[in-house]
Design a protein that fits this description.
Elements: E1 2-3, E2 10-11, H1 25-29, H2 34-48, E3 54-57, E4 62-65, E5 69-76, E6 81-87, E7 97-102, E8 109-115, H3 123-134
């Protein structure tokens, strides 16, 4: 493991390229509705009940990680948040993902979840959240 001396984020690769100087979490939350911020906080709190996750603002999204990143908040809308869960297989039989797209040239499949209400994180979603966390 390598720890960035600037942001103290741990990486599996030495001198891992990342964007620790580019954005802060407050940059993403600034100007967002109270509802959207509550949804984001709820997602993070749900994950914190599962593991001591870290939140990493990047240049264009917010990564959630442990040893590696396992989910990404890609959009904070007016009344929703979009979360992407990357998996090695396609989970087509679900009620929670709005789309599933294969990353070109890989065996990775991004599963897109749009959250409008705190109650959208139900047992089905928690199951996929755990699956993403466990890698």
């Amino acid at each position: 493991m390598w720890t960035c001396p600037i942001c103290n984020r741990e990486f599996t690769a030495i001198n891992q390229v990342h964007s620790c100087r580019e954005r802060n979490l407050s940059d993403f939350l600034q100007g967002k509705s109270a509802h959207t911020v509550e949804l984001f906080d709820h997602l993070i709190n749900e994950y914190l009940q599962m593991a001591p996750i870290k939140v990493y603002p990047t240049k264009s999204m917010i990564a959630l990680g442990l040893r590696t990143n396992f989910a990404y908040v890609t959009q904070l809308g007016k009344n929703f948040i979009d979360v992407v869960f990357p998996f090695k297989e396609i989970y087509a039989d679900n009620l929670c993902f709005t789309k599933i797209k294969t990353v070109p040239g890989t065996n990775d499949h991004n599963h897109y979840f749009r959250m409008y209400f705190k109650e959208d994180i139900n047992e089905e979603v928690r199951g996929y959240m755990r699956k993403a966390l466990e890698g």
